Amino acid sequence: MAEVDFVPGLLDREATFYVAGHRGLVGSAIWRKLEESGFTDIVGRTSTELDLTDRDAVFAFFRESRPKYVALAAAKVGGILANNTYPHDFLSVNLQIQVNVMDAALEVGVERLLFLGSSCIYPKFAPQPITEDSLLTGHLEPTNDAYAIAKIAGIMQVQAVRRQYGLPWISAMPTNLYGPGDNFSPTGSHVLPALIRRYEEAAVSGVDRVTNWGTGSPRREFLHVDDMADACLHLLEHYDGPEQVNVGTGSDVTIKEIAETVARVVGYTGESDWDTSKPDGTPQKLLDVSKLAEAGWTAKIGLEDGLRSTVEWYRANSGALADRG
Description:
Elements lengths: L16 E4 L4 H12 L5 E2 L11 H11 L3 E4 L7 H6 L1 H22 L3 E5 L28 H21 L4 E5 L1 E3 L12 H15 L3 E5 L5 E2 L1 E3 H14 L6 E3 L5 E2 H12 L4 E5 L8 E2 L4 H5 L8 H22 L1
Parallel strand pairs: 1-2, 1-3, 3-4, 4-5, 5-10, 6-9, 7-12, 8-13
Antiparallel strand pairs: 8-11
Helix pairs in contact: 1-7, 2-4, 4-5, 6-8, 8-10
């Protein structure tokens, strides 16, 4: 079946919209954005209510709820340490989630599905800034290659659905995200929430030195999750195409610079050391966001403002986070 002649436009605010992973960093931001935008039938299930690796349960849920739109933000995620330590888990769990959700969505004829990937899908030494057509042109970063392969498979499944069934599904590849609802676990967090926790704890306890991983020289791009959610809805209403769309700010900073900014925002006045025996990961990861700009969207939340609101959220919720470990 050829692709349908689909023209993007405003989504039906009264139609059922399923957000897979609605308690996570991205999913919760998408939920907030949908509520703010007037959607009245947003559906979500916690992992205890619906195990997305349980194929029969996922199909039963879709047959019952029959959503018109789906944002597939559910995933097993983590930082360098977690990805490098549990590659099988990151590959297997994410493949199961993606295949189950998309197969069930296909069965009930979901009109618009947005699959959310990650910028780690691109080769470790891809030319910077990274364009969408860099996909599958080189070797991946070894510390998170299993997760990246799972996300690449998700992009391929979206493209396969478009080719075989003509449904106008799309994929978005965000850069490094941060904001309210992030994972601040000492062992499972990404670099920015890990830095926030480390510097906040040091400031509170009066520690005069903080040690960070690596050299501090790698460059990273950071996007506030509320900007990401805004971009997701914008793409669903303004973009249709088989190629994934990069979502980012188009600018980056060194890890050392971001650590200095976090220290300033939390009020830490001590020294920062760098443990160069620990891995740096990819030397630079900056996305080319030309395609996103052509679709009419650019980031709005500045890094320091976004960090301040994230630190405020962390302080307000640190007690509950500590209870969860």
